[in-house]
Amino acid sequence: MRVAILGYYGFGNLGDEAVLWAMRAHLQEALPGVEVWVLSADPAWTENVHGVHSLPRTNLRAVRRLFRSSHLVCSGGGSLFQDVTSWRSPLFYGLLHELARGRPILVYAQGLGPLRRRVSRAVTRKAMQSACRITLRDEDSALLLRQLGVQRPTEVVCDPALALPAAGGVREPMLAVCVRPWQDVPWSGLVEALRTAARASGLPVRVVCLHRRADLPMATRLAEELTAELAVPSTPQEAFGLLGRAQAVVGMRLHALVLAAAAGVPFVGIAYDPKVSSFANSLGMPWVPSHLPDPGKVARCVADLLREAGAGERLRRGVRALQTLARRPAQAAAAILGVRG
Predict the structure, then answer these.
(1) Please, are residues 263 and 316 in contact by the beta-carbon 8 Å criterion?
(2) Which of 179, 219, 305, 338 gives 20 to 30 Å between its CA and that of 13?
(3) Cα dihedral sign, 145-148-149-151
(4) DSSP letter assigned to residue 115
(5) pLDDT in tens, 215-227
(6) Residue 146 — φ and ψ, nearest 5°?
(7) Is the CB of residue 191 less than 8 Å from the CB of residue 177?
């Protein structure tokens, strides 16, 4: 049995790679013996890191052949249909949905939006209508889907990476910080907020870069300003281990928070996008808006989490309650293919 996966893979974004890591594991649990193929910008890297088959995502002739030979096409996870980082994104993934027509398409724990352009909304509506089943990462995505007028079986699940096995290793006396470039983030305010948080925690800082191509200049500058260690993991497994050894995590990147949660590490979100605040709220973890990162509030949030003896266990209970949902898309894949667990 062959399953093809399309998404933002092979670009070095370890958040997306963590989602793929979890997807592969969950699909193999639900579909024993499944042959997984992944569209990637770097097929050799994807095959080496994830142990799957891979081909170039821009070789549309090869992609069409793969889809035709697959029993199921999984679209996602991650945020594919959004036009904030690029207006091309929904157009490209809409084209891939067109190439997959005739095969069952499962939208796999995707986060939809924002969709600011009329053409983006039209393409997304058509792509979602081509799916036989839709699983979404959060309620905001489900609301957007309803606003688009899509009529397809839909289920709200959660990020697949929440059901990764807990990271091993001993906790270190360290505050992990993960940032990303964003237009409305005041640099001096962000640095002061993180410096104040580090001072309040009494812990040394480790700046963890989850997307070398996009984040490294900012992460390097931040590490210099905070006189902190800079860590640039090369695989999602390495990133998970680094974040899982921290006492607490302060992060802008959604998957810095997801991986922290999966490892039972309390976190503070810096919300540049509603998906960050939504995820923090789902687990009762604090967050601050990225355009106004109040140093006092960030420091208080970090200090309160470190002072709360049961913060880690409270987080783990919340994560355990969501892990069944994290596996639901893979179970939906099995149901589509008529495989009983």
Answers:
(1) no
(2) 305
(3) negative
(4) -
(5) 999 999 999 999 9
(6) -65, -40
(7) no
